[in-house]
């Protein structure tokens, strides 16, 4: 199992701008010898603070060069992250 720690920052357009940060821990499950990899090392998105709950703010993409079930990638948030972002 691979563990990825991602730092997330939210920033408004105020003057001065206010920010909030948190970290997201991603557990990447793999049952074979090649781990999936995110296409980009860093993803950064800007959203309006009044964006409706459930809005899509961006997409992450990972790849796994293996074929069949060993190359299937599943994304999920760790339980502690789900509590923060509900
Ligand atoms: Ca794999």
Describe this structure in words.
This protein has one helix at residues 79-85, and strands spanning 2-11, 19-28, 37-38, 62-63. The protein has 86 residues and is mainly β. The protein has one domain. It is elongated. The mean pLDDT is 86. The protein binds calcium ion (CA). The site of calcium ion (CA) has 8 residues, from loops.
Head-to-tail CA distance between termini? 25 Å
Number of domains: 1
Attached small molecules: calcium ion
Number of helices: 1
Structural class: mainly beta
Entry keywords:
86 residues, mainly beta, two-stranded antiparallel sheet, 4 strands, binds calcium ion
Give a brief outline of the structure.
The protein is mostly beta strands and 86 residues long. 8% of the residues lie in helices and 28% in strands. Strands 1-2 form a two-stranded antiparallel sheet. It has a two-stranded antiparallel ribbon with strand order 3-4.
Question: Which helices and strands, and how do they pair?
Answer:
Layout: E1 2-11, E2 19-28, E3 37-38, E4 62-63, H1 79-85
Antiparallel strand pairs: 1-2, 3-4
Bound molecules: calcium ion.
């Amino acid at each position: 199992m691979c563990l990825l720690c991602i730092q997330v920052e939210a920033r408004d357009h105020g003057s001065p701008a206010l920010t909030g940060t948190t970290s997201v821990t991603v557990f990447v499950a793999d049952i074979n010898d090649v781990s999936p990899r995110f296409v980009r090392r860093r993803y950064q998105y800007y959203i309006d603070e009044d964006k409706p709950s459930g809005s899509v703010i961006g997409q992450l993409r990972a790849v796994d060069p293996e074929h069949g079930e060993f190359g299937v990638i599943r994304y999920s948030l760790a339980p502690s992250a789900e509590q923060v972002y509900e």
